């Protein structure tokens, strides 16, 4: 089945469970800390530089954005976490909304894959590890995507990926997919993962 990414629109910026889409369309969610490059990755995957807003104030907006692609697939942009300047109340709202997406979503069985983004230079934060453990415990399929790989040389990138695997994912079947929104490296590989899990 072909997918026309040019036929993509933001259908909902949801702040409550009641606003989640009700149509039974496969969903691919993107999770990660603020400023990890989620919006840039989504724009790169869809070939549209301005579809997902790249915020100059990370962590400011607490909504879940649903992008409908050709009426066959949703890209779901979860709110970024770990933003130091966010108030305690703001963090509580983020936690509740994100948890609701997985636990109270009427179409939870439509969540086919979560792309867990980490900055390749920094590695996973405590919040990233918490999210990964949550996904493992919940049995939700996920893929770790290392962003901003263009910041490193090819040799340094390979060494860094090996280091991250050894330090954080040794003895697991968790793999790391390198991705750059600048060079578009990893785009085809990520689409391959998405098609495999979404079964479209």
CATH homologous superfamily grouping: P-loop containing nucleotide triphosphate hydrolases
CATH architecture: 3-Layer(aba) Sandwich
Helix content class:
25-40%
State which percent range the strand residues make up: 15-25%
Number of helices: 5
How far is the N terminus from the C terminus? 6 Å
Overall mean pLDDT score?
Answer: 89
Query: How large, in whole angstroms, is the Cα Rg?
Result: 16 Å
- The total domain count is 1
Inertia-based shape? globular
Q: What is the spatial order of strands in the main beta sheet?
A: 1-3-4-2-5-6-7
Q: Largest sheet at a glance?
A: 7 strands, mixed
Structure write-up:
The protein has helices at residues 38-46, 88-103, 126-138, 154-168, 187-198; strands at residues 8-14, 27-31, 64-69, 73-77, 111-119, 142-147, 176-178. The chain has 200 residues and is an alpha/beta fold. The model is unreliable at 84-91 (pLDDT under 50). Strands 1-3-4-2-5-6-7 form a seven-stranded mixed β-sheet, with helices on both faces. The protein has one domain: Rossmann fold (3-Layer(aba) Sandwich), CATH 3.40.50.300. It has five helices and seven strands, in the order E-E-H-E-E-H-E-H-E-H-E-H.
């Amino acid at each position: 089945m072909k997918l026309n990414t040019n036929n993509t629109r933001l259908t909902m910026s949801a702040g409550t469970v009641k606003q989640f889409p009700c149509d039974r369309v496969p969903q691919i969610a993107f999770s990660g800390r603020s400023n990890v490059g989620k919006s840039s990755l989504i724009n790169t995957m869809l070939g549209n530089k301005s579809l997902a807003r790249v915020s100059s104030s990370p962590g400011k907006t607490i909504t879940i954005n649903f992008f409908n692609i050709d009426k066959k697939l949703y890209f779901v942009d979860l709110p970024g976490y770990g933003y130091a300047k966010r108030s305690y109340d703001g963090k509580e709202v983020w936690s509740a909304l994100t948890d609701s997406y997985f636990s109270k979503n009427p179409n939870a069985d439509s969540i086919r894959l979560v792309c867990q983004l980490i900055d390749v230079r920094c590695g996973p934060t405590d919040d990233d590890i918490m999210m990964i453990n949550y996904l493992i415990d919940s049995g939700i399929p996920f893929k770790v995507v290392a962003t901003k790989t263009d910041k490193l040389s090819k040799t340094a990138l390979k060494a860094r990926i090996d280091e991250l695997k050894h330090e954080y994912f040794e003895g697991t079947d968790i793999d790391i997919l390198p991705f750059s929104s600048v060079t578009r490296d990893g785009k085809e590989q990520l689409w391959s993962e998405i098609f495999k899990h979404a079964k479209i």
